[in-house]
Amino acid sequence: MKISNYLSFSHLITSMTEIQQIKALLSSPKDVVILSHRNPDGDAIGSSLALGYFLKKLMHSVTIVFPSECPPMFDFLEGINDIIIYDLDQLAAKNAITKSKLIFFLDFNSLERIDRVGEMIHSSDSDKIMIDHHIDPEPIADFIISDTEASSTSEMVFKFIDDLGWTNKIDSRIGTSIFTGIITDTGSFKYNTRSYTYTVCSALKEKGVDDYSLQDRIFNALNEKHLRLLGHCLANRMEVNLEHGAAMIYLTKVDYKDFGISRGDTEGIVNYMLMIKGIEVAAFITEQPSIIKISLRSKGDINVQTLASTLFNGGGHRNASGGSYNGKLEDVIQKWKDVVPSIITKEIV
Fold first, then answer.
1. Going by C-beta distance under 8 Å and a sequence separation of 6 or more, which residues neighbour residue 120?
2. Global confidence as pTM
3. 159 contact partners, CB below 8 Å, separation of at least 6
4. 3-state DSSP call for residue 73?
5. Which of 55, 122, 286, 327 has the fewest beta carbons closer than 10 A?
6. CA max distance for the chain
7. 94-114 confidence digits (pLDDT tens)
């Protein structure tokens, strides 16, 4: 029995006929590859693992491929060590994609998001299914399941399984992966939620997901280095503009060397600025070896997705987006300061 008929997918998947076509693709065992984006976050990891375990229950042979490594904070998730990382094993990634008969694109809607892995897709004859919640999906899949109102791709994976009529196959392991994606992409239910998000989480609780333990393992697993880095960011690298309700933290290449910063160490730092009374929008700017990256967060109606796409060649969601810039750190910082006065007045949103 289906748990909810709350919504229909908003892009291309509009009828049960198409759902049945997908169900037919899944009716016999085949080699399946699940892809997600570079620098995978909790939603990319959670949705991929959840879909992978679900497909294995249908007797498919499943391989998950990411362009780059997962943050260590998610090491507790079962199956994460089986994910093929293209940067570490290009041959294994290529062999899996070449062998596949069906490919899922999760949490991205442009081949640019998977870097050189995308080059392999152009020569693949596999059937392709996209499940994603970012705006403006590109026509890179045979079936595009897009819902920009969804809290996360993990929430959409639950809905995908539900629409197929197979929610009985969701167990606590699948549920834990889905729940991981939801709580990380919503900042523990602080943004991007809707009533259906809580319907899904309620159903997952009934499946045996221990949400207290899950949140504890994700958010209370910092080591000394992480806390010292956070202290440095707040004490030495944060600039607050209360007049315009904005704040910024930046990190230099020297900071990365001094603190031994590696992938995942800066996760969540941008959110601390929104804890300041009167701050409505925040930027976290980091000087990478060859590029400047910026993460943006906001409250309410302030649309940082537009800001990210307009100024920083990026995108994301209304209240959580990011981008990059080829240039100097000081140029990005100045660019941010120049645009800050217009943000609260919504001249750019």
1. 93, 94, 97, 98
2. 0.85
3. 4, 7, 9, 147, 150, 196, 200
4. helix
5. 122
6. 61
7. 999 999 999 999 999 999 899
